[in-house]
User: Fold this.
Amino acid sequence: MLCGYMGKILRVNLSTGKITEEFPDENTLKMFLGGSGLATKYLFDEVGKGVDPLGPANKLIFMTGPLTGTPSPSTGRYTVVSKSPLTGLWGQANAAGFWGTAFKRSGFDGVIFEGVSPSPVYLVTDDGRAELKDAKHLWGKSTSETTRLIKKELGEDFKVACIGIAGENMVKYAAIINDAEKPNWGRAAGRCGMGAVMGSKRLKAIASKGTMKVRVANEEAFREETKKRYDWVNESLLKMSLEVYGTAAVLDLVNVRGGFPTRNWQTGVFRGADNISGTAIVEKILTERKACFACPIACGRLSENKTAPYAGSGEGPEYESLGSFGGMCEIDDLEAITYAHFLCNEYGLDVISAGSTIAFAMECYEKGILTKKDTGGLEIKFGDPNVMIELVQKIAKRDGIGNLLAEGTKAVSEKLNKGSERFAMHVKGLELPAYDPRAAKLTGLAYATANRGGCHITAYVEGPTFLSTPYLIVEQSDVGDILQEIPETAKVVKDMEDALAVFDAIGACKFMGMVLTAEDWAALISSLTGWEFTAADFRKTGERIYNLERAFNVREGLTRADDTLPKRLLEEPLPEGPAKGQVVNLEPLLDAYYKYRGWDENGRPKPEKLKELGLEWIIKEI
Ligand code: SF4
Assistant:
């Protein structure tokens, strides 16, 4: 058997209930590794142009990477890939926690779901065994209640990934939540509406446990390579800041540059930032720090709200929930934001898209585009925490105005019109995370070109730009003056997109890019699999995966016109702060990026580039 892999991928036909096993050849594994890379290969081959994302022909693919479930640092991740109901394009989300490791140790590298089940089911995987079980009694239950009931049925040692009512209701940005061991807990595979696809298939959960070990080619070398990297991460500045302050550690750094989106991106300076910062969390609500599988960092937060009506405890908040429910909605009530995060864990909602869509609705209301008639009498005003919480609940339940907002910012804007598309803050339909590119121009290029839409972790250029932190091989000096559009820096975006595509393929947490380089990962992959895998292979593999994702989108009809930003970022100068007067001049950056990529001027990968990457079989497809 191959090392690094369990050697089995499940194929579950939900329409018939038939479960089979298969596994790709070694050459395919070397080309796409696993995780998001391998899942995208399946998606490209099996989900053709024009398939309805919420129909039976779409597939939902869970995949671990070769490093998932090994002791190398922060490698407990799994990826979910499908055609996204939010963007209509290549969709992907991933999460850490413990479920991915439990699934792999149950004897499988991945599972491909196809068809639609006639009634709700969940999948159990356990030491080489896989079985579908009735989930009628779980339908309508929250993520933590689903997890509790499944553990009661199967045993406490099972780990669960599931959807809540948002996924059942096919909210277009519903998330898959794993490890919801207690009320309000959970890690989220949040982006692109993977939870909605799961709901459309009437698949409530996957419960996994196992004792099977990941085989290692060179045990001693892998142990040594792992220990060295684990020690480096343990001693890093990354650990010191993330462990103490969580992901909220970056909030002050972004706000001080004038790039913390506030009032639906009307400004980048949030005056309430001190009330919701990493320090505020530590002082007011933090009860415990929490690590994912094999992670020395522990950036997770367990928090306790003490004040009614938001009292309760749970997992969160994260920087992105502080950005979307906080800055974007202009709310500085930390307990309200934390409560919104708890609700997203329970309902299974993406915090970025939920908060961002609510902020967009607040501006529509401010401008009279949405009225009390549309909202059922609700005054959707910036700065009102109670309204924000009520809207999260309405969205998950598709209740009243929530039914419209459940479609996501792009769809709401298209329905309302009246100029609202100017401040509908999404790229390709995916709502933007909390870094304003007018305050760091390269971020704008990264948002515009990310294959899954407006995303900050496809090419984590926020590290060397907003945070002045080296990331992989990229130094702060490589990005130059962050308020300038420098075409040569477009190569940084390309290189980081390629590198991070490999992180998603091997099962590694992207925070590790602040400590470990391509050489480090190549050494770990080599000693694990027994392949000669170099840093050059790492980069080439990433580029191959990235181009395959792009090819999926091009086949769906994506063009250069889609690689853009909301008009607000292109035309409305920031009104205050260090980036006052700035907009993003995207086109010169995009021209340079396409050249570095070997794509034509319309953003289509050229045949010679696809041949160079061993992807000649897709030339006829696009
Ligand atoms: S750094 Fe944070 S998100 Fe990443 S694996 Fe560790 S605890 Fe999980």
Remarks:
- The pocket of iron/sulfur cluster is lined by residues 74, 96, 291-292, 295, 297-300, 509, 511 (CB under 6 Å).
